[in-house]
Amino acid sequence: MKTRFEVPAEQLTWRCDLSLLPFACTAEMTPLEDFIGQERAMRAIEFGLGVNKPGFNIFVAGLSGTGKTSIIKAFLQKVTRQEISPEENFPAPEDWCYIYNFNDPDRPQALKIRRGWGKILKSDMEQLIKGLQREAKRMFESDEFVRQRQAMIDELQRKQQETMESVMEEANKNNFTLRMTPSGIVLLPMKQGKPMEEADYIALPAAEKKLLEEKRSEIEKKVDAALREGKKLERAMVEKLEEIETQAGDYLVRIPVAELKEKYQDYPKVVAYLDAVHDHILKNLQRFKISEATSEARSFGPALMGEPPSDPFLPYRVNIFVDNSATEGSPIIVETNPSYHNLFGVIEKKPLMGGYITDFTLIKAGSISRANGGYLILHDRDVLANAGVWEALQRVIKNRELKIEEPGTFFGWVPPQGLRPDPIPTDTKVIMTGDPSLYRVLAMQDPDFHETFKIKAEAAFAQ
């Protein structure tokens, strides 16, 4: 029995007319990347992204768990895709490298180079060193070079021998003989063709002793002069041998370094580095004359004695600090664990015999460096949960440069030690997400907050 207000069951069910839908499967639909009903928040974010001045970073306020980070990342990906044009062939921030500082080894030099060329520079330097090792071994062990070097050594020995023979002849004329002892050359008086015994010397009259000592003093002066002349000849010979080796080394190094300088002529800092490499190699040719096995033995040998192992070719290595070779458009980095080292970078250390060693190749980048020229997304609670990160982040934002240092050094707990890498200019747009209540607390308690986060976007994002 039907009542007046009874509704039939078929009228309670709505069925969609599939013919009205412009697709056959939801897989054909383009994912939604825009904010729904958040025009004001989107305008604030777009304004913040468009202003490239200090402090115009963005704080996106909204309730936790409402998908702020994922939606912002999708929106940034859309923005970066619009920045890319075919004519520019996917422009992206340059690579950053650290190279050896020949003037101050404790201050590695920061080097900015075209995207993807960091790997090329590193490979070119490795090939340069391998080629020089191979060619140097071949040249310095060649028959011609060995013969020329030995001829110079023989000439030195001949001159030294002639000088000493003349002194020995002078000593023999005055009845003295020269004898080599651990403490040097000693002049002994002669008697009947043999060195005089001590008893015979004591038995000599005083006048004869005096005459003998005067002659000994004159001959000793000539011996000293001969020895000084021999040392002078030896120093001159060493300088001549070094000159010959330097000329040979310059012949080996000049052409490959010149080719690299021409390749990197658009980067004055690379050219200056290659000039320093050229000069350093000529002063350290011995590193290239040893065999590969000997080089490895030298690297491991000192470590067994408690000394740090040495890489003889460390000054010619290249540390690729930030590699953007695979980056298309501006980088977008979401840091979910913003610890001090994860965010700002670290100088890693290797344990050795109860201590630590490091070098410029162990400088590693953090999220700010990897996001340089792009966008870094952080969550406020994660940042504030790590000691020192908030203060250091504001300092980087205000100074627009990053210094890689230990947290203890930043707070003055420990004195600066070890490497002090060149600071790197930063052009990172920081987007902080968080709760509105925490935003108000930061705005009231931190006097620098409004100077570093000048843009606020507040919306109730939906999943």
Structural overview:
There is one protein chain. The strands form six sheets. Strands 8-13-16-1-17 form a five-stranded parallel beta sheet. With 463 residues, it is α/β, with parallel strands linked by helices. It folds into two domains: 39-93 and 327-463, 3-Layer(aba) Sandwich (Rossmann fold), CATH 3.40.50.300; 104-325, no CATH class. It is built from 16 helices and 17 strands. It is elongated, with a radius of gyration of 39 Å. Helix 3 (117-140) packs across helix 6 (206-263), helix 4 runs antiparallel to helix 6 and helix 6 runs antiparallel to helix 7 (268-283). It has helices at 39-50, 68-83, 117-140, 143-173, 198-203, 206-263, 268-283, 286-289, 292-304, 340-344, 367-370, 380-384, 389-399, 407-410, 436-445, 449-452, and strands at 58-61, 95-99, 109-113, 176-181, 184-191, 194-195, 318-322, 332-334, 346-347, 350-352, 355-357, 363-364, 375-379, 401-402, 424-425, 429-434, 455-458. The longest helix has 58 residues, at 206-263.
